Amino acid sequence: xxxxxxxxxxxxxxxxxxxxxxxxxxxxxxxxxxxxxxxxxxxxxxxxxxxxxxxxxxxxxxxxxxxxxxxxxxxxxxxxxxxxxxxxxxxxxxxxxxxxxxxxxxxxxxxxxxxxxxxxxxxxxxxxxxxxxxxxxxxxxxxxxxxxxxxxxxxxxxxxxxxxxxxxxxxxxxxxxxxxxxxxxxxxxxxxxxxxxxxxxxxxxxxxxxxxxxxxxxxxxxxxxxxxxxxxxxxxxxxxxxxxxxxxxxxxxxxxxxxxxxxxxxxxxxxxxxxxxxxxxxxxxxxxxxxxxxxxxxxxxxxxxxxxxxxxxxxxxxxxxxxxxxxxxxxxxxxxxxxxxxxxxxxxxxxxxxxxxxxxxxxxxxxxxxxxxxxxxxxxxxxxxxxxxxxxxxxxxxxxxxxxxxxxxxxxxxxxxxxxxxxxxxxxxxxxxxxxxxxxxxxxxxxxxxxxxxxxxxxxxxxxxxxxxxxxxxxxxxxxxxxxxxxxxxxxxxxxxxxxxxxxxxxxxxxxxxxxxxxxxxxxxxxxxxxxxxxxxxxxxxxxxxxxxxxxxxxxxxxxxxxxxxxxxxxxxxxxxxxxxxxxxxxxxxxxxx
Length: 594
Known about the structure:
Elements: H1 14-22, H2 40-46, H3 55-63, E1 89-91, E2 98-99, E3 106-107, E4 109-111, E5 120-127, E6 137-139, E7 149-154, E8 159-160, E9 166-168, E10 174-178, E11 185-195, E12 214-220, E13 236-239, E14 246-248, E15 251-253, E16 256-258, H4 267-271, E17 274-276, E18 291-298, H5 301-308, H6 327-333, E19 341-345, E20 348-354, E21 356-357, H7 360-366, H8 373-377, H9 381-384, E22 403-408, E23 411-418, E24 429-430, E25 448-454, E26 458-462, H10 481-484, E27 485-488, E28 507-510, E29 513-516, E30 521-522, H11 526-548, H12 551-556, H13 560-565, H14 571-576, H15 585-593
Keywords: Nucleus
Main location: nucleus
Family: Belongs to the cclA family.
C-alpha cells in the first residue's frame, strides 16, 4: 500500500516493486544446521590439567607479522658436532713451495675446507645444548682466531700463511676477503707488498719474460667475484700497484684532495672541484716493501636505512647520522634475520646461507660497453646509471659522508672514492630463484678488506689488533681501545647515557658502552664486536623460537612433540642444493642427507 502505482524519477519501475511486494514466499527457508559443540564438562575432562590448550594460539600470535629465521627439518646433532671446529688442513704448493722472499714463512692452500661458491656462503658452527629451540646449532669460528683473511671467503687457488695474514696466488687475478667488515664509522687497515713490483726496473715485464707478480688492495662487498681483482665491478673499490691509481668498475682514475663545495656553483662545477694528485716518477708505482693504508668512512646505519628505504631528505638529514641519535630508527636497522642450515663437511659443521647476488642495475652500472656508444644515442642513460642517494634503483643509491682515503708509508696520498654505494637490503639481495627470502640483513653485510694477487704476488695484512699495532698509523687513529671506547656507563630505557647529551659528537650507547664511531679505529676491533653480535643474535633467535614453540606453557605441558611438529619443512632450500663446482664440495653430501 505504500508503493506508488505510477513510475517516478526516484522509482523508475514501480510496477516491478509492486509485484515483488505482493509476492509472498510459500515456505520459510530452511535454517542452517548449527555446529554441535561439546559441553563444558566434556571439554574440561579431555583437556590437559583441566585447562584448554592454547599453545597453538600463542604460536600463531607470535609469528604473525614478525620476521623470524626459517627452521628446517634436520636430524639431531651428532656427538662430534658438539666439539669445537677442527683446525684447517693445508697443502704445500708443488713442485715449488710458495715462500716469502726472506724464506721464513711458507704459504699453503687450505684443503678439505668449505669455500664460498656460486649462490652459497659458509660459516663455521657447533652444536650447543643451550640452544635446543633453534635446533642446537650456533655460530662459531675456527683457527687462527682474530682478524685475518677468511679461508672460506677466498678463491680456491689462494694460499695463506698459518696466521692468515699473508696471501698469494699462482694464477691470474684471484681475490680473498677478510673475516671482519665495516658497516658504519671510520676503520683502517694496512697492506704490505711482500712480493710484487721490484724496487727497481720496469713495472710491466717480469723475470725471464714471464708475468710479473702484482697486488691490488681495497674494500669489497660480498657480491664482488672472487675470481677477479679488487675494483673489477661496482661491488668493490681498489687501488692498483702499477701507476698507483684507483680502480672501480674496471675504470682507472686518480687520487684527489676534495675542495670545499660552494652552493653558488653549479653541480658540474662542484664535481670539478678536486685537486688531483700527480705522482712523481719515484712514486708512480707501488713496489715491494711499500705499505698502503686504506681508510673507509661510512655514515650511521640509521642514515643508511633511510637511504635504502627511499625516505632520505638531504634538507633534513644533513649530518652523517651520528650527531642526532634516533633509538627507534636504530632498532629498525638491527632487524637481523639469518636463514641458515647446518651442513656437515669433512669433519666440521658449517652454516649454509644464500649469498647475495649481483643485480641487473649493478650489471648495467659496471658495463663498459654502455659508456661511449649508448651514451651518445641515449642522453638520459648516463643520468640513470649515475648513483645518488635518491636514485630510483636501490642498488644505485650512494651513501653521503662516505669515502675511502689511501695512505702510503705513513703519508696521506689523497681521497680515492666518495659517495660509496649502499649495501643494506634492498640494495643487496639474494637470488630469489633458489628459494631465498629477499629484504633481510643477516648482520654481515658491509665493506670487507680485500686483496687480489696475480702470478705469485704476496701481500701481508695488518688489521691493527696485534701487539705492535700498525706499521704506519695515521695521526688521527685511536692509539688504544680507550680512545674510541669509553668506560661503561649506565643507560636509560631509551638508550641515552645518564648525564650525557644523547650522542653529540658521534657517540652512541650500544649495549651499555658509549662508543665514538667518528674516531678512526683499526678494523681488527671489529672481530670481538662481531663475536658479540653473533652471540646476541643467536640468543635472540633462541628466544624467538622459544616463544613460537609455546614458551613456558609448552614446557610445562611436555610439548616436545609440539616443538618438533612446529619445525618448518622447506623444500625450496633442499631443491636448491646441488653441485657446487667440479670438486663436488657440499652439494653432494647435502643432496644425500636431504
